UniProtKB/TrEMBL annotation, chain A:
GO BP term, pick one: GPI anchor biosynthetic process
Domain Glycosyl transferase family: 184-329
Species: Helianthus annuus
The protein's name: phosphatidylinositol N-acetylglucosaminyltransferase
Alphabetic keyword roster: Glycosyltransferase, GPI-anchor biosynthesis, Transferase
EC number from the UniProt entry: 2.4.1.198
InterPro entries found in the cross-reference section: Glyco_trans_1, PIG-A/GPI3, PIGA_GPI_anchor_biosynthesis
Gene name in the database record: SETH2
One matching Pfam family: PIGA
Entry keyword Glycoprotein: no
GO terms of molecular function: phosphatidylinositol N-acetylglucosaminyltransferase activity
A Gene Ontology term for the protein's cellular component: glycosylphosphatidylinositol-N-acetylglucosaminyltransferase (GPI-GnT) complex
TrEMBL record, chain B:
Organism in which the protein naturally occurs: Helianthus annuus
PANTHER family assigned to the protein according to its UniProt record, in alphabetical order: PHOSPHATIDYLINOSITOL GLYCAN, CLASS C (PTHR12982), PHOSPHATIDYLINOSITOL N-ACETYLGLUCOSAMINYLTRANSFERASE SUBUNIT C (PTHR12982:SF0)
Transmembrane portions of the chain: 32-53, 65-84, 96-114, 183-206, 213-232, 238-256
UniProt pathway: Glycolipid biosynthesis; glycosylphosphatidylinositol-anchor biosynthesis
Topology in the lipid bilayer: Multi-pass membrane protein
GO BP annotations, alphabetical order: GPI anchor biosynthetic process
Keywords of the record: GPI-anchor biosynthesis, Membrane, Transmembrane, Transmembrane helix
Keyword Nucleotidyltransferase: no
Protein name listed in UniProt: Putative phosphatidylinositolglycan synthase family protein
Keyword Membrane: yes
Protein family per UniProt: Belongs to the PIGC family.
A cellular component annotation (GO) from this entry: membrane
Cited Pfam families: GPI2 (PF06432)
Length: 426, 280
């Protein structure tokens, strides 16, 4: 698994990679994660169940991404792939430069390659246009691709020009053993609405500023708990001061992941106001804790929960207030334990791992192709871009051959495997 | 999640909610050509200013002529404003008159400074700098409105239109500093600043008032500019004529030709737009 985003950094992609790796390890596969070095964490580390993580010694340069040197990563990736006897490379997140480079080099060296896209992107601003072109390059020759929702699949297919049959939809899951509802049901007075998200523009913090005073005015027995931090926190504090809601709105600041469950268990309703979301894991965590969800109808959110567990609204303050009213009305009919049980059946990381395994099998069965057979796929990327991409791949191939001459494959020492049974006993 | 379907199953509802070219405006050739007349009108105004500069540097125009020109311009500007603007009261006019008299007095007092401003710089650098500043001014100019807020206009000026205005002011100061006498310096700066600051405002008011008057004014201006440039220098005449033809005829045709390739995609994956303004 290759990505710029992994622990100790915290987020959806990191969590996904870690939990998927753990479940694949349980199924008996060997998983190695490669990422860049963090503040003082560099080198090789072992995590739970023998998950080996290579923190390659490059510092991140822009927004958690390593500096994109096209061919600089070739030696280290080759060494890792040969040492660990890897058969398949799985890259995550279109925004990660390390992922794109690793997929390119893996393809040159003849490995099978899979890409998972975790976010939605637009088409019209200059950053998106560049990113989409890079994605088109990487996905021109990928073996299979995975998206986290059907909306994300449509978005990825449009951005990269992949045939839709190559894209698999495997939604994220939630760790239901960690997110359990409170043993006793909370009393209905006061009704507590929980918000846990980064307080940035993308996550709809401005919508919260409009919605909270309105709801507090309409319902005197409603309280809000807001967890999370970010640039928009100042606006929320100002809103609190302006409407004198200090006793009805609690701002908790950044909530560490271990404490999220206790914050969720202190509420009845979970409010998600994000403006764009490929697949919202926060909603899954809330539903697993037995909270009724109110969310904006954006991106892949309508595909996440069945209609009786979620109330959707347009990203418009009046519509959201209306949705909260409806949620408060149906709240007495919700049974948290029942909700948790249903979530346990619907979403599990083991299911995700099994489905991913099917994708891996499909990828491994694809035929090996030489460089000449692969080059025509890059030519379809565009009149000028196609030829440029072909040139990039040819140079990569030549560099790989030179590296093979300088340090042949047989000289690279393979890593001895862990005996799985010993780990299980320990 | 769906039993019985593969994960890569693609059915008919795939990309059903995609909307293409929702915000694209269908353009008509004649309308685009008429709109491009504003651009060539401004080009001619700038060409006339440069002509006046060239003639003054050659000492073909005297100071008295320039001062009479300045007063005529101020008078005609006020006349057009009175004619076209609807919300003009006597108090506002008096306000404008006071501001203009302050401005003129200030310029007269400061003209000795401008007279000796670039004495130590060689002429070639001045010509090169002026040319590049005028080109920069034309590039970044806001052709659709006016940098100075017209009474009743809604848009605020943006960064590029401010930069273009500053470029034109600096160019006129540089030219003025090459002149022999102080009165000439004062007259030429007053003339250049009047044109650069107020010409967009006047043409904007004229265009809003009557489109035919605007077209007539543009054609008269183009004819006047072309005759004056012809008398000055044949090559520049050819260049100006070529530029006007390019802007008015070739560019609209080109724009409409490449509009066919426009491909705008919207769908459920777009980031939602907030329908209210964020007030900090």
């Amino acid at each position: 698994m290759v990505s710029d985003f992994f622990y100790p950094n915290f987020g959806g992609v990191e969590n996904h990679i870690y939990l998927l790796s753990q479940c694949l390890l349980k199924l008996g596969h060997k998983v190695v994660v490669m990422t860049h070095a963090y503040a003082n964490r560099s080198g090789v580390r072992y995590m739970t169940n023998g998950l080996k993580v290579y923190y390659v010694p490059w510092k991140p340069f822009l927004m958690q991404n390593t500096l994109p040197t096209f061919y600089g990563t070739l030696p280290i990736i080759r060494t890792i792939l040969i040492r660990e006897k890897i058969s398949l490379v799985h890259g995550h997140q279109a925004f990660s430069t390390l992922c794109h480079e690793a997929l390119m080099h893996a393809r040159t060296m003849g490995y099978k390659v899979i890409f998972t896209d975790h976010s939605l992107y637009g088409f019209s601003d200059i950053g998106s246009i560049h990113m989409n072109k890079v994605l088109q390059f990487t996905l021109a020759d990928v073996t299979q691709a995975i998206c986290v929702s059907h909306t994300s699949k449509e978005n990825t297919v449009l951005r990269s020009g992949l045939p839709p049959e190559k894209v698999f939809v495997i939604p994220n899951a939630v760790d239901t053993t960690m997110f359990k509802p409170a043993p006793e049901r909370l009393s209905m007075d006061p009704i507590v609405i929980v918000v846990i998200s980064r307080l940035v523009y993308r996550k709809g913090a401005d919508l919260l500023v409009e919605v909270i005073p309105e709801v507090c005015h309409l319902y005197p027995n409603v309280r809000f708990i807001i967890g999370g931090d970010g640039p928009k926190r100042v606006r929320l504090e100002e809103m609190r001061e302006k409407h004198s809601l200090q006793d009805r709105v609690d701002m908790l600041g950044a909530v560490p992941h271990a404490k999220v469950r206790s914050v969720l268990n202190s509420g009845h309703i979970f409010l998600n106001s994000s403006l764009t979301e490929a697949f919202c894991i926060a909603i899954l965590e809330a539903a697993s804790c037995g909270l009724l969800t109110v969310s904006t109808r954006v991106g892949g959110v309508p595909e996440v929960l069945p209609d009786d567990m979620i109330v959707l609204a347009k990203p418009d303050p009046s519509d959201m207030v209306h949705a909260i009213k409806k949620a408060i009305r149906i709240l007495p009919h919700i049974d948290p334990q029942e909700m948790h049980r249903r979530m346990k059946e619907m979403y599990s990381w083991h299911d995700v791992a099994k489905r991913t395994e099917i994708v891996y099998d499909r990828a491994l069965r694809c035929s090996n192709q030489t460089l000449l057979e692969r080059l025509p796929r890059y030519l379809t990327c565009g009149a000028w871009a196609g030829k440029l991409f072909c040139l990039v791949m040819i140079i990569d191939f030549i560099l790989w051959r030179l590296l093979q001459l300088w340090q042949p494959d047989s000289e690279v020492e393979p890593v001895p495997d862990f005996k799985r049974t010993e780990l299980k006993r320990g | 999640m769906q039993p019985g379907f593969d994960d890569n199953h693609t059915d008919d509802t795939f990309l059903q909610e995609m909307v293409m070219n929702a915000n694209v405006v269908k353009r008509d050739m004649l309308k685009v050509m008429l709109d491009s007349v504003s651009i060539s009108q401004y080009l001619c105004i700038v060409a006339l200013v440069v002509l006046v500069w060239a003639h003054t540097l050659n000492s073909t125009i005297t100071e008295n002529f320039l001062i009479i020109l300045d007063i005529t311009l101020v008078g005609s500007g006020f006349f057009i404003l009175l004619l076209t603007a609807k919300m003009l009261s006597f108090k506002l006019l008096l306000n404008y008159a006071i501001k203009i008299s302050f401005f003129t007095t200030g310029l007269y007092v400061l003209s000795p400074i401008y007279h000796t401003l670039t004495r130590s710089i060689s002429s070639d650098s001045i010509w090169a700098l002026t040319t590049s500043l005028v080109i920069l001014h034309l590039f970044l100019h806001n052709y659709s409105g006016s940098t100075i807020k017209a009474p009743g206009a809604l848009e605020n000026p943006n960064l590029t239109s401010n930069i273009s205005l500053n470029a034109s002011i600096v160019a006129s100061l540089l030219i003025a500093s090459r002149l022999p006498s102080r009165l000439l310096v004062f007259a030429i700066i007053l003339f250049s600043l009047q044109v650069f600051l107020f010409a967009p405002l006047i043409t904007y008011c004229l265009k809003k008032y009557s489109f035919r008057l605007h077209l007539l004014f543009s054609f008269v201006l183009m004819a006047l500019t072309l005759t004056c440039v012809y008398r000055l220098h044949k090559l520049l005449f050819v260049v100006l004529l070529g530029l006007l033809v390019f802007v008015n005829l070739v560019c609209p045709y080109w724009l409409i030709r490449i509009q066919e390739y426009k491909f705008e995609i919207n769908g459920p994956w777009d980031e939602a737009k907030l329908c209210f303004n964020i007030t900090d």
